[in-house]
Amino acid sequence: MIAAAPDVLLVDDDEAVLAWESAVLAQEGYAVRTARDGAEALSAIEARVPDLVLLDLLLPDLDGFVLHALIRERSSLPVLVVSVVPSGGESVLRGACGFVQKPPDPETLLAAVRQALGEPSRPTSVLVVDDDEPTRALYRTVLELKTPYAVVEAADGLEALGRLRADPSIRLVITDVHMPEMNGVELVRAMRGDERLRELPVIVQTSDSLMARSGVWAELNVEQAMDKDDFRRWLRETVTRRVPRGGEEPPPAV
After folding, report:
1. CA–CA distances in Å: residue 16 to residues 21, 45, 61, 224
2. Which among 118, 149, 163, 189 has most CB atoms closer than 10 A?
3. Is residue 254 part of a domain?
4. Looking at residue 208, what is its pLDDT?
């Protein structure tokens, strides 16, 4: 029997926040419901007790602190505070299972949700994009043997973009340039136009020496662009230095 997806209730009066949190959690397979104020939240809990509540503290009707107290009176339902209020307020945190400062990045939010639900943490991943399968296999072997990171593969830019949008654990992209469907330049341009992927570090490796020296990479804030042979020599050092751990922010592009 397949286990039901964890039911998460989001409580926030900001439609944009609800939409963003819903998208991030739904993408990870959570069943998401929303409430825009305290009354809606209590009704939703009465109708079906969720596995977790994500609670903003600044609500239009019931103050978030009051709502949290009411939830605590009725059940031991875990409540994760997601708020601009620093530290969520000591009084509310005494009964909350955690606090996330707004605005969080996707991985920070997901890590807090997993912890609140008692789920195991997920490894940081590196996305390797290359249309040459032996090259991908080589990079996978090196990365998995010599670094603590999981490896995700894509054969072209279009596939890579889909994987990036579906997997927030990816914290670094290593891409070739000349590929079918969508090449490396097009991939990075698409990433820089996506709010969630804009700051993700990218390393370009290519057998085209002229392309490796192209000024386009600086324009696209690419971490590094280099010849494939040179790249292979310092692969482990580069990945270990540049991939953020857990929920850390990716390093700024240089």
Report:
1. 9, 22, 19, 34
2. 149
3. no
4. 84
Q: What is the pTM of this model?
A: 0.53
How far apart CA 242 and CA 189 sit, in angstroms, is 20
List the domain range (segments joined by +) for residue 131.
Answer: 125-240
Question: Residues 144-202: pLDDT tens digits?
Answer: 877 777 899 999 999 999 999 888 778 889 999 999 889 999 999 999 998 888 888 89
DSSP 121: P
Asked if 39 contacts 60 with a C-beta cutoff of 8 angstroms, the reply is: no
Question: Which two three-digit tokens encode residue 46?
Answer: 């009465």
Residue 64 has which token pair?
Answer: 């978030």
Dihedral, CA atoms, 74, 80, 84, 88, nearest 10 degrees?
A: 70
Choose among 49, 54, 92: nearest CA to 74.
Answer: 49
**Tokens 């600086």 appear where?**
218
Q: Are 172 and 201 in contact (CB under 8 A)?
A: yes
Write down which residue in 117, 133, 155 finishes a domain.
Answer: 117
Contact 32, 73 (CB under 8 A): no
Structural domain contains residue 102: yes
**Residue carrying the six token digits 């307020």:** 89
Whether residues 187 and 140 fall in one domain: yes
Residues 156 and 178 in one domain: yes
250 within domain boundaries: no
What is the model's pLDDT at position 3?
Answer: 47
Parts of the chain with a pLDDT under 50 = 1-3, 88, 91, 245-254
Please tell me the distance from the alpha carbon of residue 198 to that of residue 116, in angstroms, as a whole number: 28
> Would residue 253 count as lying in a domain?
no
Nearest alpha-carbon partner for 118 in 41, 6, 22, 34: 6
The CATH number assigned to the domain holding 171 equals 3.40.50.2300
